[in-house]
Design brief:
By secondary structure, the chain is an alpha/beta fold. The protein contains nine helices and eight strands. It has a domain of 113 residues: Rossmann fold, CATH 3.40.50.300. The radius of gyration is 17 Å and the shape is globular. Bound molecules: adenosine-5'-diphosphate (2 copies) and zinc ion (ZN). One adenosine-5'-diphosphate binds next to helix 2 and helix 3.
Length: 217
């Protein structure tokens, strides 16, 4: 199963992708996580990506396309994958189509998480992430049992630099301008499934499970 998650920043893509990983045993490919890891390690890629991320802008297409191509050709992606945060521009989508075609594969479904903007801001501003295992929490909707500490691994929770309200507005603008057109791009191929992402995490998951069971059979 080769899947894409679409939806604005903070829609719940990462949260739901982790459930897909567990149930269907396919890897999550999150370009945002890959960049944050590179930034934390201080690699060349990290230095280059950070200036864009801090402004809420997109990292240049060539850079992102390169890392995804390398990731998708790894062995653990043979049985499928879930792309979270990629593609984000039409150029990235076209490059993805090209690389999959070369491999004799294609995208089976695009899960489009639909969430209104007011809700997005709340989700992002209260988002906290585990430094050690990447688990995602929300101080309002899914708080950790102990303040500042990850339930799963005891790691320290932090707020992403780009999760401050000013940057969130810019990321929303970038989403509408550059990423939203992908909904039409994939609709033309007839593979978009709209998911009501306003509901709580459990309910959204049930809807996603239904879609995935349908496309698997
Ligand atoms: P969210 O889903 O919360 O918006 P991500 O973790 O996916 O955030 O992305 C964080 C930042 O990383 C983006 O604002 C952008 O700067 C960069 N980034 C991640 N994925 C891409 C991509 N596919 N193309 C360009 N930039 C990206
Ligand atoms: P994305 O990967 O799309 O940026 P995340 O999965 O990181 O989004 O979720 C953004 C924030 O919203 C996190 O704090 C997460 O705990 C919370 N969240 C995710 N899904 C829901 C939901 N259905 N209802 C309420 N909060 C949610
Ligand atoms: Zn953790």
């Amino acid at each position: 199963m080769n899947l894409i998650f679409l939806g604005p920043p903070g829609a719940g893509k990462g949260t739901q992708a982790k459930r897909i990983v567990e149930k269907y045993k396919i890897p999550q490919i999150s370009t945002g996580d890959m960049f944050r890891e590179a930034v934390a390690k201080g690699t060349e890629l990290g230095k280059r990506a950070k200036e864009y991320m801090d402004r809420g802008e997109l990292v240049p297409d060539e850079v992102v396309i390169g890392i995804v191509k390398e990731r998708i050709s790894q062995k653990d992606c043979e049985r499928g994958f879930i792309l979270d945060g990629f593609p984000r521009t039409i150029r990235q989508a076209e490059a993805l189509d090209d690389m999959l075609e070369e491999m004799g594969r294609k995208i089976d479904a695009v899960l489009n998480l639909v969430v209104p903007e007011e809700e997005i801001i709340k989700r992002i501003v209260y988002r906290r992430v585990c430094k050690s295992c990447g688990a995602v929490y929300n101080l309002i909707y899914s708080p950790p049992k102990v303040d500042g500490t990850c339930d799963k691994c005891g790691g320290e929770l932090y707020q992403r630099d780009d999760d401050k309200e000013e940057t969130v507005r810019e990321r929303m603008r970038v989403y509408r301008e550059q990423t939203e057109p992908l909904i039409e791009y994939y609709s033309k191929k007839g593979i978009v499934f709209n998911i009501d992402g306003k509901k709580d995490i459990e309910e959204v998951w049930k809807e996603i499970e239904k879609v995935l069971e349908r496309i698997r059979s």
